[in-house]
Design goal:
mainly alpha; 11 helices
Length: about 325
């Protein structure tokens, strides 16, 4: 038994020696590792601030912000679970066992789907708010948004379990060897994922925002012509809605720009090479989770105010959740 165990361990070691290429410990390699670690830390910190802000301050507990909270949670989990494992896998010869490898891919796929679903929900939310402002409060309620967000996450989990079903069934719990972390998806599954995760959401987002843009332009013209004091409050509300639409529009644009390079091999029918270009595309894909809270910081005054209260620890004071943020 001891001999068999040693032989199995020896086979694992030889397998590693045949496949592993350890990145040299050069200044360039250390700089890349430090940069990726800083991106990971920034992603976790910023998205944690968004999650705390929306969860703590009751004034921010709106249907739109609940969708943004769902997006921030998925981005936070990318920073906590996916980015560190990716850095570890790229910088070390210590390969993962199949369970850890599958878990990392499954987490990445689920969080990507949940993030895409949240993007679509934000598009629908802004579409209703701009195009049907009089019916918005009755159509988009907090309870309905909670249901939609829950369904989004549930579908993300189920969809990706089905997507990785063949790989999950191939896991051998008796095999203790650490292997190169690669998940192979066949052409049909990859094409299906490309349609459901990229083409369909992007198409819906573009169509809705084209409609929002047309209505927003017409509303802007109306606002310029409304100078009476009686309608000043309405104008202020419309400006707020348009500002929110513009901000989320920028978020969606960044989403498309960061996702396109990652899906470009699938779009062009090429195989992923796994080289430097592939790693750069992967990290640009991950950086979408970093860019989102940065956009909040630039365009949402409530986020900057809440961050000041959080950093100064004023949220620990009694009644801080009732603070006026907006």
């Amino acid at each position: 038994m001891m001999v068999e165990t040693l032989e199995a361990a020896d086979r694992c070691i030889h397998s590693h020696n045949n496949t592993c290429m350890l990145m040299p410990n050069t200044p360039k390699a250390m700089l890349i590792k430090t940069l990726l670690s800083c991106i990971t830390l920034l992603t976790v910190t910023l998205n944690l601030l968004v999650v705390i802000s929306i969860s703590h301050f009751r004034q921010l507990y709106t249907p739109t912000n609940l969708i943004l909270l769902s997006l921030a949670v998925s981005d936070l989990l990318v920073g906590l679970a996916v980015m560190p494992l990716t850095i570890f896998a790229q910088q070390s010869c210590m390969f993962f066992d199949k369970i850890t490898c599958t878990f990392s891919y499954l987490m990445s796929f689920i969080l990507t789907s949940a993030s895409v679903g949240s993007m679509v929900l934000t598009s629908v939310d802004r579409y209703v708010a701009i195009c049907y402002p009089l019916h918005y409060s009755s159509m988009v309620t907090t309870s309905r948004v909670k249901i939609c967000v829950s369904v989004c996450w549930f579908c993300s989990v189920v969809y990706n379990l089905i997507l990785l079903k063949e790989h999950l069934l191939q896991i051998d719990l008796s095999n203790s060897c650490y292997e190169e972390c690669v998940v192979i998806i066949n052409y049909i599954t990859g094409a299906t994922d490309l349609v459901f995760t990229f083409f369909s959401p992007v198409t819906v987002i573009i169509i809705l925002y084209m409609r929002v843009f047309v209505v927003a332009v017409s509303q802007a013209r109306v606002m310029h012509s409304q100078i009476s004091a009686l309608r000043s409050n309405t104008v202020t509300v419309k400006k707020s809605e348009l500002r929110a639409a513009r901000t989320i529009g920028i978020i969606l644009l960044v989403f498309i720009l960061t996702f396109c390079p990652y899906f470009s091999p699938s779009i062009t029918g090429q195989d992923a090479t796994g080289g430097i270009d592939s790693e750069a595309q992967l990290w640009l894909f991950f950086c979408n989770s970093t860019f989102n809270p940065l956009i909040y910081a630039f365009f949402y005054p409530w986020f900057r105010k809440s961050v000041k209260l959080i950093v100064s620890l004023q949220i620990l004071q009694p009644g801080s959740c009732e603070a006026k943020i907006m």
